[in-house]
Design brief:
Layout (H helix, E strand, L loop, with lengths): L1 H23 L6 H31 L4 H32 L3 H28 L1
């Protein structure tokens, strides 16, 4: 009997954890939030494409001059920032549709790593500048 009651307690505890997780991570109802998310993703895509174009052009010109090396590394660090922001925004969108707590927790951890990578890319851009 003890094992059955402890199993039921664990199932109830997991249901409570799931409910708490969903109440904390429910999608914001503010319509401005969605517009900001879409604008952020759009600017990150445009920034990635423009930085990729810059890297291609700068690599074809010359890699021996310090100015080209400086500009290429700056474009690469900005592209890292934009790509990690895009991934974080995509993960946020996926998290809003997920109901599995274990998958959501894993995606949150990846999202945190992408945020750290974006912050590192920004710091790298400042350092290069």
């Amino acid at each position: 009997m003890t094992n059955l009651s402890s199993l039921e307690d664990l199932i109830r505890a997991q249901d409570e954890i799931d409910d708490l997780w969903h109440s904390i991570n429910k999608s914001p109802s503010d319509p401005l939030y969605y517009w900001i998310s879409y604008a952020t993703f759009t600017f990150a895509v445009l920034g990635s494409l423009s930085n990729l174009t810059s890297v291609i052009v700068l690599l074809r010109l010359s890699t021996h001059l310090a100015t080209f090396v400086y500009l290429t590394s700056l474009a690469l660090s900005d592209m890292i920032t934009c790509l990690s922001i895009m991934i974080a925004q995509l993960l946020e969108f996926i998290l809003q549709t997920r109901r599995s707590t274990s998958v959501a927790i894993s995606l949150r951890q990846i999202e945190i790593l992408c945020g750290a990578l974006a912050a590192g890319g920004r710091v790298l851009s400042f350092w290069i500048s």
